[in-house]
Queue: 2 jobs
Job 1
Amino acid sequence: MKRVLSGIQPTADSFHLGNYLGAIRQWVALQDSHDAFYCVVDLHALTVDVDPKVLTERTLASVAQLIALGVDPNRCTIFVQSQVSAHNQLGWVMECLAGFGEASRMTQFKDKSQKAGADRTTVGLFTYPLLQAADIMLYGANLVPVGEDQRQHIELTRDLGQRFNTRYGETLVIPEAQIMKAGAKINDLQDPSAKMSKSAASQAGVIDILDEANVNIKKIKSAVTDMGKEIRFDEKEKPGISNLLTILSHLGGKSIPALEAEFAGSGYGDFKMAVANTVADYFAPVRTRTQQLLTERSELLAIIEAGAKKAEVVASDTLARVYANMGLLPRHR
Ligand code: TYM
């Protein structure tokens, strides 16, 4: 069975619609056909200011949401990154392999550091993609299901893996990104030219999957739409409507042409109401299940503990081979 690895940051109280449609939906789909490892990347969350109590709660809520969305701990390995120390260890190796210029070209770093300013940008934010490369290569992942915004990080991972193998002999598996054709970039409802993001200045255009139905219905009803009246998929001329069509198509299970036909002659208001109701109905059970899982804290912690044990076995084996091939002394004889 081929390996899959992906990760998500616990940096918000709830995942948003982009996280689900771009990434988690794929995680669920791949868990039976692949040996899948999915991690909540709490170390990556440390690259920005965190409140310890909030981080703990968000980490637990992230695991609960993954399970509620259909990532099944009996069919894959769900774990928390900081509990497997090999991530930091291989992360350092990746930092020593990557060029400063190469890391400086990462667009996510450039965007985020520009917004925060040099003094508030941590060194961790700079080395973030190298820890991500370690996350992936520790598990010998063949596939990495992610949204479009992670493409460059996976390319960097591939380059580093190839560099390692050329210098030190075949050791690391070179992964491939798996990015959906549609849904890989869900946009902000208020600014359809920008991706939906937890770090957006305003949350008015971000649909949090754990929010109450009425909150999300209101946000969708006030989504920015485009000139004209037609419900038609055209990302250039009608980015707002196209984004809503993408969302409705994925959550409602109908193709975009079928939806265009269904809403021919309808106004934007009716169309938005259909999107709002579909979103609300889709995530209502996820919200209930997440809340329930969070009340069963010891069971949740047991799942996380079991995941760490399974991940540890694979990760420490890769790390030992990496260290040995680089000439670091073995600890046990
Ligand atoms: P993060 O936590 O920002 O996002 C998690 C996943 O959601 C996808 N995503 C989107 N997809 C479509 N439309 C959007 N608007 C949207 N916003 C986010 C992301 O592409 C991602 O797949 N660096 C990663 C976390 C990470 C990781 C890894 C991923 C750490 N180690 C190893 C894969 C493999 C990140 O910040 O994701």
Job 2
Amino acid sequence: MSGVKVKRTRRIAINTGGGDAPGLNAVIRAATLSALQMGWEVIGIRRGYTGLLEGEVDGEPGVFPLTANSVRGITHLGGTILGTTTRGNPFGLDVRRPDGTWGVADRSTEIVRRFEEMEIDALIAIGGDGSLNIANALQAKGLPVIGVPKTIDNDLAATDMTFGFQTAVEVATDAIGRLHSTAEAHQRTMIVQVMGRHTGWIALESGLAGGSDVILIPEIPYQTSSIVAKIRERDEERRRFSIIVIAEGAVPAGGEPSYVDQTGRYGGIADRLAVELETLTGKETRSMVLGHIQRGGTPIAYDRNLALRFGAAAVRCINEGRLGTMVALQGNEIVPVPLLDAVKELKRVPVDCDMVCTARQLGVCLGD
Ligand code: F6P
């Protein structure tokens, strides 16, 4: 029949951006299976938006169909089958000029055009604050987006929890727990540096669960004298070892955080504190950095289920036309919140929250 517009199959795309987190593949699996169940097509984009801009990524097509077979058995796998990048902001991509120098290019309009050419109806962007800010800016340019909150840092304000966080806490707690015997054997002070970027959620939750004596978070600038007093107090109680958990973004009162480079990447605070404490207390002190171990490996059951719920909810949002939103955990429910609300501020540890109060009531030193 002429003139009758045949309704085409709805098509959605999925990408993963920023640092990886345990649970990414569970989101991809749930979103893909939910969309396929609706009779839609699903496209995977490799490495953030790179796959849209480059025909090939790592020798594979930059975009490719996600099928039931593509996502079979990936719920428990760490990492992301799509790959990711922390340097893929389409509004400011590093580009090499013909003369060999480097510049920055805004290729965001090209991204929107590629979505239109491929007749993609919506993008499920799985990411942290950086990726979700990019998704929000693309939404403003007309690209329909649903955000899924991913980060081990748990620092996104609009959701009670991000997936990946509890797995990182589990990994850090296990590491901290293992230190008690070796610290006691040598009567040492052991300092464990954990991730979390600008916030102390991982340090607080793993420090409490791991039975640490001192927990240092960016939200509470620490006095070295308070830490020394805690170590000496334990000595007097004949508990001649101490476990200190310090967030990578922690800062001495009146001082500055420790960075590893000019980009503002945190690093070195545990080593810096270890030198100070060994000098001030005269006790052998050792420091260690858990680093990317907190991001690796299989997600724990809690994060698998949270990630599956987020992925399925993202498809429901698209089906209900709730675009420009992020799926969020609020209480026990997954609800859509405006993407703008999700990215406008970081969720920092309230210094009077019940977990901080609990730590203080247990006699944990918070450095103040
Ligand atoms: O945001 C997640 C996170 O793991 C932070 O906790 C950490 O500071 C950062 O990423 C590390 O980034 P990269 O993987 O680029 O070293």
